Amino acid sequence: MERTIRVTGKGKVSVKPDLIRLHINMEEVNKDYESTLHHSTEATELLKDLIEKLGIKRKELKTIFFNVDTEYESYQDKEKNWKRRFKGYKYVHRMKLEFGADNKMLGKILYALANCSVNPEFSIEYTVTDPKESKNELLSLAVKDSKEKAKVLTDAAEVVLGDILSIDYSWGEINLVTHPMDDRLMKCMEPSCCEESSYDIDIEPDDIDVSDIVTVVWSIG
Fold first, then answer.
1. Are residues 117 and 150 in the same domain?
2. 158: left (phi > 0), else alpha (psi -120 to 50), else beta?
3. Does 123 lie in the same domain as 146?
4. Which residues lie closer than 8 Å to 96 by C-beta, 6 or more apart?
5. Cα distance between residue 129 and residue 100, in whole Å
6. Model confidence over 154-169: pLDDT tens digits?
């Protein structure tokens, strides 16, 4: 029976975020289906107009999820029995907008969203333009760490580290995002003192720390 050693290595990297991802959510209830679709289209076009005026292409506002469904509400009748009645049709439109990590542009976009007639909900996260590069570096470091540990163990046991027999990796999703701003902070922001309508934002997001593990099996002799 071939003798083996199984060692788990861990890789860690710190990545500087260079991309802002803005999540935008709109919801509205109307009495009939046609009006719901019409209002959804109007609201989306208004948002595209806003970002286009700021120098961002309309196509950069991308849909993540869209749905129209019936909406009901609960009520009590005269006998105090709870019942449901039809309220209308509700649309839910979730979108995202990505642009370079630029506080000045972020301030302009947030001001435009906060003061537009459709009043969308929005949240902000910082991420990286090329997550694949960071993930590959992470895997490389994890394998290197596993090999270093295996070498220490085999030297201590006075055996020879042989060839790699297998590498076990979960391929789980690595989330390269950070959220330096919350809703309370955005509500307290004041417009900047300049000709352009904007919020004065001075944020330097911290590096994103991520880690992952790889398990490697070597033969030993």
1. no
2. left
3. no
4. 21, 22, 23, 24, 61, 62, 64
5. 8
6. 999 999 999 999 999 8
* Whether residues 47 and 147 fall in one domain: no
DSSP-assigned letter for residue 199: B
158 and 93 part of one domain? no
For residues 79 and 23, membership in a common domain is answered with yes
Domain contains 141: yes
Q: What is residue 195's predicted lDDT score, i.e. its pLDDT? A: 47
The per-residue pLDDT for range 92-118, each reduced to its tens digit, is: 999 999 999 998 999 999 999 888 888
Which residue is it, tokens 């911290």? 206
pLDDT at 171 over 90: no
In degrees and rounded to multiples of 5, residue 31 shows phi and psi of: -70, -35
Q: Average pLDDT for residues 59-70, to the nearest whole number? A: 96
First-last CA distance in the chain: 12
Residue 33 structure tokens: 């289906």
Q: Residue 101 sits in a domain of what CATH number?
A: 3.30.70.2970
Yes or no: say if 113 and 61 are a contact pair by the CB < 8 Å rule. Answer: no
pTM flag (> 0.85): no
Q: How far is CA 220 from the centre of its chain?
A: 43
Residue 61 to residue 204: CA distance in whole angstroms: 24
> Which residues fall within 8 angstroms of residue 33, CB to CB, at 6 or more apart?
68, 89
Total of domains in the chain: 2
